[in-house]
Amino acid sequence: MMGPGITRTTDGLRVRDLTVTFRADGRDVPAVRGLDLDVRPGKVLALVGESGSGKSASVLGMLGLLPPGTRTTGTAMVNGVDLLSLSSAKLRRRLGKDVAIVFQDPMTSLNPVHTVGQQVAEALLVHDQGLSSRQARARAGELLARVGIPAAVRRLDDYPHQFSGGMRQRVMIAIALANSPSVLVADEPTTALDVTVQAQILELLTDLCREQQTGLVLVTHDLGVVAGVADDVAVMYAGRIVERGTVDELFYRNSHPYTQGLLAAVPRIDLADYEPEPIPGTSRSAAGVDVGCSFAPRCSWAAETCLTDDPPLQDLRPGHGVACLRAETVAAAQERKSR
Amino acid sequence: MPEPLLLTGAPRQSRSQLRLAMRRFVRHRAAMAGTVVLVLVFGASLIGPHFTPYGFAELTEDYSQPPSAEHWMGTDAIGHDLLSQVLRASQKSIQIALVVAALSTFIGVLIGTVAGYYRGWVDTLLSRMTDLVLVVPVLAVLLAAANSISQRGGNWFLVAILIALFLWPTVALVVRSTVLSLREQDFVQAQVAIGASDVRIIVKHLIPNAVGPIAVSATLLVVTAILLESSLAFLGFGIAPPDTSLGKLVAVGQTASSSRPWLFYFPGVVLLVICLCVNFVGDGLRDAFDTRRSGGRA
């Protein structure tokens, strides 16, 4: 376990041209179409999008966790190794060590027949055969204490059903961070939890990642969460990133009509008479997008060209990329509005 | 009875699912009665022969005696003491049943978990193999094979192995379907995500979660094995004389059931009692491991 303040040389996660294609009924169904992502060490990247936008498929694809028959191409570099080029046996050795994941539902992610202590210890033992079970147990206790479980050592011998949802998610975080991975993927880690616990878990997750210089990919559809904890944001729509940048850029100088639509749809209590505004139409997955901008059919800014030309993800400003043919017009309008 | 709430600071005990299942099992009256009777019968069959005055193969001077103080279960036409024989026979039958249950459960769990975990062509191959063994007319094949075993001295262990080779499919089917659903659980994917190997996932995570169905089908195998061995012995194969088994005693006694009923009824009733008790135990195990049935985790 890495103590606080220890930094280490890691270049985080670098994903290039990731595609994920499912096979259903003999047809290829694209879920992710050419995704680029950069996660900096110790920073939080929020991957935002509606259901079906491909955010979970992207992160599971990177880690080779999708069911067999799914095709994943591109590169995902962690610590100088391309995860996607590894055989499944070699990838298995990297998982949990270089890159780990926290799943959505802590109620089902722990094996009901083993004690919590055994399961945390196992995460250590899988990657360190030299570790004795006593040592593993001692470190499991430290890890549980570190994720804020009261009387951690005493609870090592408890079974998952004796833990609450929030506590179980803490255990999952302890397991994921057991081997100090360079990158941690959290796939909607708070969705299954009580609202009151969500904030605590997010804070814990981001604090620990910053402390041990782990890059965190936070998959979420909750923009409130994004605003609170993320450093960078990438907005996905129909299997692609439509806009990415720092949190401030995304919230205050967003230039993609979809990002604006998402933000306008968030209910707010800080403004009087604020009516959330839904985006017209329904969200679409990457399947069935042929030509043009996938958001064009729902976009009030759409022009003729949007229906025929594919918008590339281009930097509007350094560190702020937008995939919209009319980005500059949209950005200008946004400037005027906020002024 | 509701569980006491686990309050912080209150004395509490970690409860594994196994321990919870044990508690439920102990409360199951028929299962507990079955267990006690089985233990008594097996214990008697092991210890009893040291106390009976006659050996199971010993020929006494008393021919065709009805039950008496001298011979509690009577004697047969050539002077065997039936009590000694029944004890010896129960011992052999139970031994065979246990070996069969252990061996076929092992084979079944192995094939079932591999098929269920890997799916695809592995599953297809193993499942077809299972189906194949399942449709083999067991008794006919066993008779043919048991015949040659009888000629080789009727080793009970060989008989057990032979029976086991045909009884594993039921376990394999149960385990496969259990593993098929288990492998889709999040905790299995969580194990993949921490880098656990397939072997580790199967041994440490899938099999322990399938213990319930495995235990139940193993128990039921015990009954099947006892009955199958009895059928073989009844037809005159398997264990060779002078050694004996319950099936053999019933077979011999059956011919005399009207004139010397004790020869048929004593071994028959013991056979029946063993099978009934094992079934009760199986019922108890099923209820103990089935959380839905007993409503929650008490």
Automatic annotation (TrEMBL), chain A:
- PROSITE patterns assigned to the protein according to its UniProt record, in alphabetical order: ABC_TRANSPORTER_1, ABC_TRANSPORTER_2
Q: Which InterPro entries match?
A: AAA+_ATPase, ABC_Ni/Peptide_Import, ABC_transporter-like_ATP-bd, ABC_transporter-like_CS, Oligopep_ABC_C, P-loop_NTPase
What's the protein here called?
Peptide/nickel transport system ATP-binding protein
Q: Which UniProt keywords apply?
A: ATP-binding, Cell membrane, Membrane, Nucleotide-binding, Transport
Question: What main location does UniProt list?
Answer: membrane
**UniProt-listed PANTHER family:** DIPEPTIDE TRANSPORT ATP-BINDING PROTEIN DPPD, OLIGOPEPTIDE TRANSPORT ATP-BINDING PROTEIN APPD
| Species this protein is from | Kribbella caucasensis
Q: How does it sit in the membrane?
A: Peripheral membrane protein
**NCBIfam families attached to this UniProt entry:** oligo_HPY
- Keyword Transport annotated: yes
Classification via Gene3D superfamilies: P-loop containing nucleotide triphosphate hydrolases (3.40.50.300)
Q: Extract one GO molecular function annotation from the record.
A: ATP binding
* A GO-annotated cellular component: plasma membrane
* Occurrences of domain ABC transporter (ranges): 13-263
Origin: domain of life: Bacteria
Q: Which family does it belong to?
A: Belongs to the ABC transporter superfamily.
Q: Where in the cell is it found?
A: Cell membrane
Q: Could you provide one GO biological process annotation from this protein's UniProt record?
A: peptide transport
UniProtKB/TrEMBL annotation, chain B:
Give TM segment ranges: 30-51, 94-118, 130-150, 156-175, 214-240, 262-282
Cite a single GO BP annotation.
transmembrane transport
Q: Which GO terms describe its cellular component?
A: plasma membrane
- Extract the SUPFAM superfamilies matched here: MetI-like
User: ABC transmembrane type-1 domain: from which residue to which, for each copy?
Assistant: 94-282
Where does this one sit in the cell? Cell membrane
Write down the membrane topology. Multi-pass membrane protein
Which keywords does this Swiss-Prot/TrEMBL entry list? Cell membrane, Membrane, Transmembrane, Transmembrane helix, Transport
Output the InterPro entries linked to this UniProt entry: BP-dependent_transpt_permease, MetI-like, MetI-like_sf, OppC_N
Give the family, as the similarity comment puts it. Belongs to the binding-protein-dependent transport system permease family.
Name this polypeptide is given? Peptide/nickel transport system permease protein
Its source organism is Kribbella caucasensis
User: What taxonomic classification does the UniProt entry list for its organism?
Assistant: Bacteria, Bacillati, Actinomycetota, Actinomycetes, Propionibacteriales
